[in-house]
Amino acid sequence: MLLLPYLKHLFFAKGPHGVHSPFVFKLITEVLKQQRVEAWKPIEAARGKLLSNDTTYVVKDFGAGSKGLQTTRTYSRSVASSAMPKKKGEALHLVVEHLQPSGLLEIGTHFGIGTLYLSEALHSTKKIITLEGDPTHAAEARTLFHSFQKENIEVVEGNFNDTLPTTLNAFPEMEFVYVDGNHTEEATLRYFEILLQHKNITCIVFDDIYWSKGMMRAWKQICSDARIELSLDFYWFGVIFLNGRMRKEHFSLYLPR
């Protein structure tokens, strides 16, 4: 993450008193301040086991999400650097719980920690498809989901350029998308355009929008797109809404956790 954008976000971000949208006001004053400790404890216990695993493996990395790491790494280092952080996982769980989409797509599974945070917010009858490029990550995620008895999660393995269009065609009930894939400007904008072809999507979350100058440019372009209604910048991730008949607004917000 870049330091100057973070300082600017802290300076310009709004709290509840600077928000006039009833939907956003409720989100930051009620929804994101809730606690689901009993649901989150087992996920953090699973993270702890992975953090204590010093086994090495070779990563088949298609993108920039692991910039700076070697091709060979340990489970513990990979989880520490790339798994969804606890604070972000809790926030996204609460967003998904509040919206209750009919189906959820995740682009970038890793070991499945973030997927579990998302899945705990949904009823077990609602389908989740998560895309992963690395075979080791995909296999470990499947094992983790099985241990949590998550029968509604499907891991699709392969390059996102191939698996995303195929998944879109086969997943009509998808309404919510979490994008944590290739952290480049070009890839992020490509995902955005592909996803907007799916008419049922109402919410997309883009992770690490301040990862680099390229990601910042991509996020700015997405927010200014006429097809987007509401955009929320929480610095650690950005949320956009569409197909909901909201008026076009943008808010930079503190994450109230």
Main features:
two-stranded antiparallel sheet, single chain, Rossmann fold, 10 strands, alpha/beta, globular, 257 residues
Chart the SSEs and their pairings.
Layout: H1 3-12, H2 22-29, H3 37-51, E1 56-58, E2 72-74, H4 75-82, H5 86-99, E3 103-107, H6 113-119, E4 127-132, H7 135-147, E5 153-157, H8 160-170, E6 176-179, H9 185-195, E7 203-207, H10 213-224, E8 230-233, E9 237-241, E10 249-252
Parallel strand pairs: 3-4, 3-6, 4-5, 6-7, 8-10
Antiparallel strand pairs: 1-2, 7-9, 8-9
Helix pairs in contact: 5-6, 9-10
What can you see in these coordinates?
This protein is an alpha/beta fold and 257 residues long. It is built from ten helices and ten strands. It has helices spanning 3-12, 22-29, 37-51, 75-82, 86-99, 113-119, 135-147, 160-170, 185-195, 213-224, and strands spanning 56-58, 72-74, 103-107, 127-132, 153-157, 176-179, 203-207, 230-233, 237-241, 249-252. Helix 7 links the parallel strand 4 (127-132) and strand 5 (153-157). The longest helix is centred in the N-terminal third of the chain and has 15 residues, at 37-51. The two termini are 19 Å apart.
CATH class call: Alpha Beta
- Enter the CATH topology name: Rossmann fold
Number of helices: 10
Radius of gyration: 17 Å
Précis, in short:
The protein is 42% helix and 17% strand. It has 257 residues and is an alpha/beta fold.
